[in-house]
Amino acid sequence: DQSSNAGITMEQVVDHIDHICQLAGNSRHAAIGTDLDGGYGREQSPEDLDTIADLQKLQGMLTKRGYNADDIAAILHGNWLRLLRQAWSA
Q1: How is the chain split into domains, by residue range?
Q2: d(CA 73, CA 60)
Q3: Distant-in-sequence, close-in-space partners of 74: CB < 8 Å, separation ≥ 6
Q4: Average model confidence (pLDDT) across the chain
Q5: What was the pLDDT predicted at 82?
Q6: 36/16 Cα distance (integer angstroms)
Q7: Based on C-alpha coordinates, what's the Rg of the chain?
Q8: C-alpha pair distances (Å), 2 with each of 15, 42, 45, 47
């Protein structure tokens, strides 16, 4: 069962996250959203993302790129929470 994203790695995903952060000037406009809990499966994921537990690797990858703990927390969950709170309070 070959992934439709063969050749796409988590490191490349981090390349894209970093690109968005550089364009925006900060980490407030990038976020991780997956449908690994039922929407999509491995065929829509980077080839080196075997289980949802592998998402934990993103923290170390972002750290190696120079992102601090606050930036990483924002990218991994904080930006979504901020957006949802803003939307639901309107």
Answers
A1: 10-89
A2: 12
A3: 27, 28, 30, 31, 82
A4: 90
A5: 96
A6: 19
A7: 14
A8: 23, 9, 11, 9
Alpha-helical (H) ranges within the chain are 10-24, 57-64, 69-73, 79-89
Indicate the pLDDT class of residue 39, thresholds 50, 70 and 90: low
At residue 27, φ and ψ (nearest 5 deg) are -95, 10
Is residue 2 over pLDDT 80? no
Report the distance separating Cα 12 and Cα 71, nearest Å. 18
Residues 74 and 27: beta-carbon distance below 8 Å = yes
**Using the 8-state DSSP alphabet, how is residue 56 labeled?**
G
Of the two residues 84 and 42, the one the predictor is more confident about is 84
Averaged pLDDT, 44-51: 86
**Residue 38's pLDDT is what?**
67
